[in-house]
UniProtKB/TrEMBL annotation:
Its EC number is 3.2.2.-. SUPFAM superfamilies: FMT C-terminal domain-like. GO terms for molecular function: alkylbase DNA N-glycosylase activity; DNA binding. One of its GO terms (biological process) is base-excision repair. This is Putative 3-methyladenine DNA glycosylase. InterPro entries: Formyl_transferase-like_C_sf, MPG, MPG_sf. Belongs to the DNA glycosylase MPG family. It is an enzyme of class 3 (hydrolase). The keyword Hydrolase applies. Keywords: DNA damage, DNA repair, Hydrolase.
Length: 186
């Protein structure tokens, strides 16, 4: 196995921006049909709560967003444009509506297809709405610290596709590993 341990609940129960930066370089693992698909997280976006006009939680608690207001360390998986899945990691204590969108993965083990974008990485990893609300401390879908990690630089830029979010559109809440070939957009 190319990792040392699953990330504990306390990892996710911190400030969203801190979790977002901390996820860079970690491994996303999904066991499908007995095969571990593993990707290294190279790009994320932070959504910092209901006051963040780009966050789904800005509309309040709905059947769709209820997961985001729950305990940290769970997956929020949703459908966009009626056809593409995206995955977020719920952060901070329950009730805050905070999450981190996974935007791009670098393939590590048994991961084929394009992973440069939130919908593409979900397709390659076999992630769909059946995993919405899934506890990321499970044995079949989780995030883990790699056994070793080379040092890397990070970049902060505005999030992608949130022009509707007024002043929130310009906040530098997208983080990625500088120079990584699997980042979706530089």
């Amino acid at each position: 196995m190319p990792f040392t341990r699953k990330l504990p609940r306390t990892f996710y129960a911190r400030a969203t921006e801190e979790v977002a930066r901390g996820l860079l370089g970690m491994h996303l693992v999904h066991v499908c049909g007995g095969i571990e698909r593993i990707g290294r997280i190279v790009e994320v976006e932070a959504y910092v709560g209901a006051h963040d006009l780009a966050a789904h939680s800005s509309k309040g608690i709905t059947p769709r967003t209820r997961i985001m207001y729950g305990p940290p360390g769970h997956a929020y998986v949703y459908l966009i444009y009626g056809m593409h899945h995206c995955m977020n990691v719920v952060t901070e204590p329950a009730g805050n509506g905070c999450e981190v969108l996974l935007r791009a993965l670098e393939p590590v083990v048994h991961l084929e297809g394009n992973t440069k974008g939130p919908a593409l990485l979900c397709r390659a990893m076999g992630i769909d709405r059946r995993l919405n609300g899934h506890d990321l401390l499970s044995n079949d879908f989780y995030l883990a610290e790699p056994a070793s990690m080379e040092p890397f630089g990070t970049m902060a830029r505005p999030r992608i596709g949130v022009a509707y979010a007024k002043h929130w559109a310009d906040k530098e809440l997208r983080f990625y590993i500088d120079g990584n070939a699997f980042v979706s957009r530089r």
